[in-house]
Design a protein that fits this description.
alpha+beta; HIT family, subunit A; two-stranded antiparallel ribbon
């Protein structure tokens, strides 16, 4: 089991509300933090979250800044993005032990406005009272992973993505 480290939520909240869009900065080549990209396509990007409450926690987003989960997409654009969410979910599921895969779109007009999907693999053996939204809470801290471990994880997910249709 991976060790956890505490996270100071105040700077995270301030940055997500008042800072530049973290996804647009990544797409522009100016990431706010070191990022481990697992997919870099023409219209979409997928990368490991810098805050890993669950091992393999990956974010999938359109490269273009859009803010509404369904309203800013045509049906075809939305379905194409969901195909990538599915592919990433399958790659994550193959890369790390997963009892249940959570897929959520979080963020709001108040913070983290760029629409994105969280692909979060719940590992086997987590007690029920620590599953679902409790498993994603940053209040318990995040996994204490080295840059090398994150790079290995990203490479594993990327490898599974490249070998899938």
């Amino acid at each position: 089991m991976e060790r956890r480290r505490p996270i100071d939520l105040a700077p995270y909240v301030e940055r997500s509300r008042d800072g530049p869009c973290f996804i647009c900065e990544l797409v522009a080549g100016r990431p706010l933090h070191p990022q481990h990209v697992v997919y870099d396509g023409f219209d979409e990007i997928a990368f490991l979250s810098i805050f890993q409450p669950l091992l393999g926690y990956t974010i999938v987003a359109p490269r273009e800044h859009r803010e509404h989960v369904t309203g800013d997409f045509t049906v075809d654009e939305y379905l194409e993005l969901q195909r990538l969410v599915h592919r990433v979910g399958e790659a994550v599921r193959r890369a790390v032990p997963t009892e249940r895969l959570y897929v959520l779109s979080l963020g709001s007009q108040s913070g983290n406005r760029h629409v994105h999907w969280h692909v979060a693999p719940l590992p086997p053996g987590v007690p029920y009272e620590e599953q679902q939204l409790e498993a994603l809470g940053l209040e318990r801290g995040v996994l204490d992973l080295s840059e090398e471990r994150l790079a290995e994880l990203a490479a594993s997910i990327r490898g599974h993505l490249e070998s899938s249709p």
